[in-house]
User: What shape does this take?
Amino acid sequence: MHGIRILEALSATGLRSIRFALEIEGLKEVVANDLSAQAVEAIKRNVAHNEANDIVKTNHGDASYLMYSSKFGYECIDLDPYGSPSRFLDSAVQAVKDGGLLLITCTDMAVLAGNSPETCYIKYGSISLRTPACHEMALRIALQCVASHASRYGRYIVPILSVSVDFYIRLIVKVFTSPAICKQMTSKLSNIYLCVGCKSFFFHPLGLMSKRDGKPPKYSLAHAPINTVCEHCGRHFQVGGPIWSAGLHDKDFIKKILTHLNNNSEKYNTQRRIEGILSLLLEELETPLYCTLDSLCSKVHCVTIPLRIFRSALLNGGYDVSESHAAPNSVKTNAPFTFIWDIIREWVKTHPVGKKRLEKDDVARSLLDKTPGSVDLSIHPESATQAGEVLRFQCNPLPHWGPGYKATSNILEVKEEKRKQQEKKKMNTT
Assistant: This one.
């Protein structure tokens, strides 16, 4: 019997496996696995209730062991753990078939976004930095982690879709086998140098690759960066990474999804939200990371420059520009930070900063003391965004929206123990 085999390695209630079975054509089998016996029983009841027994099969066991014992066994593997998926990646990259899909969710955003660089290195093999572009950096840290696990077995990844949404990130990558192409990975990874003062950044690739006609690519090591202090404000750099510095999405794939949505609008209650995110991904530049206008302007204590004026200045200067799906009021551009700060200096000419603020801030003085280059702030005809046409950024649907507590097998006992401890504290205080 032909068809696709899907593994939901950490299934919990099995609802996603059931949706796979009921909504995707051509499936041979969906394996819904969980380590908790109670969860497996709940999966069986849910599967029976939705009449999906012919496709969804349950399994009670350790997810890593199941994947290790099923080498190249699945066309698609879905990993959606509580927190970091890193401990499941080694087995997942081996269990997926050549050309198959890995669907990975990370909910430990505090770690990925720079709150604990040491923990991030332990879990993902990368140093995270606190930057306004932390949500995209989280995507790129997670991608390099997946790529690193895959390359150990002569396999490489191709990102299909990488999104930061709500309180988590979601990656969809294809996995292929080719030890020769694995050598290209150093040219797709970079360290990031972030100024502690003005938050300017630049990237330094781990390796270089040059293509040659009719010959295999030539690989070489990158040279050490020259600047030891920031040329814009004179402060030192923090070093983070390595991060994935290649593309995050397959835009042909995104176009196919949008076409499917337009042809089947009655099927999806969240169509506007899907279209909004995908339209942003489609126009997003492949340039790593982004700037936020409020963060740039806060460094010199000026009124925030309007998004359209900032975009116009970049376009008038001959540079590309787009928004990022990861943050509102964000700008992705291939312009150097020298030109970006020139735009801010030109803006400050008509929106001056108070002298008292500059006297107390060495970074702001260093940025504004320089003479700006040629900058044109007039409105560019292509500077407008699609705002109003699509639902681009969503609000949280409910108060306190976000991940709940981690599931435990003895949740009732834990709650009872906490209750007793609280009672003891009250008695001791009285």
